[in-house]
Amino acid sequence: MEISRVGLVTRKLANMTKPVTEISILGDQWTIKTITPIKTVEATFKLGTEFDEVTLDGRKVKTTVTLEGQKLTCYQKGDPDSILVREFIDNKMILWLTAKGVTCKRIYKRKEE
């Protein structure tokens, strides 16, 4: 079993950031924009259609997004392959990210307007 480690500085920076995720829909076009103090990435796509994406950590991947109920799932083919599941519950979005057999969880709260 291969164990990969994230450097101490990278891990501390990641833990300190509070990313903002904006999701918008215009017709059948979806856009997910992730904003951090270090970098902002944006992906525009149609559900079920593979597209090229550059992830927040700089990986170039082929992504396909599906929607089932309240779960938006991004299947990313790259090095490594990964799956992001965004589950919408009440005023929260729970993000599950799985890569190399490891899963992490981050909880976002909807910003009050």
From TrEMBL:
<dbReference type="GO" id="GO:0008289">
    <property type="term" value="F:lipid binding"/>
</dbReference>
<protein>
    <recommendedName>
        <fullName>Lipocalin/cytosolic fatty-acid binding domain-containing protein</fullName>
    </recommendedName>
</protein>
<feature type="domain" description="Lipocalin/cytosolic fatty-acid binding">
    <location>
        <begin position="5"/>
        <end position="110"/>
    </location>
</feature>
<comment type="similarity">
    <text>Belongs to the calycin superfamily. Fatty-acid binding protein (FABP) family.</text>
</comment>
<dbReference type="InterPro" id="IPR031259">
    <property type="entry name" value="ILBP"/>
</dbReference>
<dbReference type="InterPro" id="IPR012674">
    <property type="entry name" value="Calycin"/>
</dbReference>
<dbReference type="InterPro" id="IPR000566">
    <property type="entry name" value="Lipocln_cytosolic_FA-bd_dom"/>
</dbReference>
<keyword id="KW-0446">Lipid-binding</keyword>
<dbReference type="InterPro" id="IPR000463">
    <property type="entry name" value="Fatty_acid-bd"/>
</dbReference>
<dbReference type="Pfam" id="PF00061">
    <property type="entry name" value="Lipocalin"/>
</dbReference>
